[in-house]
Amino acid sequence: MRQNTNSAQIEHREVSPLITSAExxxxxxxxxxxxxxxxxxLEHTGIAHEHPLIAIGVVLISSIVLATTDPVRLMxxxxxxxxxxxxxxxxxxxxxxxxxxxxDCSDWECGQLLPSLExxxxxxxxxxxxxxxxxxxxxxxxxxxxxxxxxxxxxT
Length: 156
Prior knowledge:
Layout: H1 2-15, H2 21-31, H3 38-45, H4 52-66, H5 71-78, H6 82-95, E1 98-99, E2 102-103, H7 121-130, H8 146-155
Antiparallel strand pairs: 1-2
């Protein structure tokens, strides 16, 4: 099984130069500069960091890079807290977008790791990961608000 994971990572590296979670984050912040407000973050948390929606996007794209939806592997790769990654994973599983260790990104995937700017489906998936949007028939009392978890982790 380890060999399959390594070959998946190599394939993604050949398709795109985005190979680390930091590079994924930087690419998302560059592509969507209106999402993260570093001055606001610094003023309210005392540290410069990405917006929770960018962090959720990093988790989603990392699941493609690693070819897994396993929260432990995603946590290790992204270096986000276990609580945060598990909450994103739970929301994606409740929505049916993460099943059997696979991410159904067919709504937005276009042959590249990053969606095109005009493709809003990626942001729908980010909002599902956040817990503020649900696919039809999948809303659950178990949905977690990952943005609050992200902020709490940054403040502690």
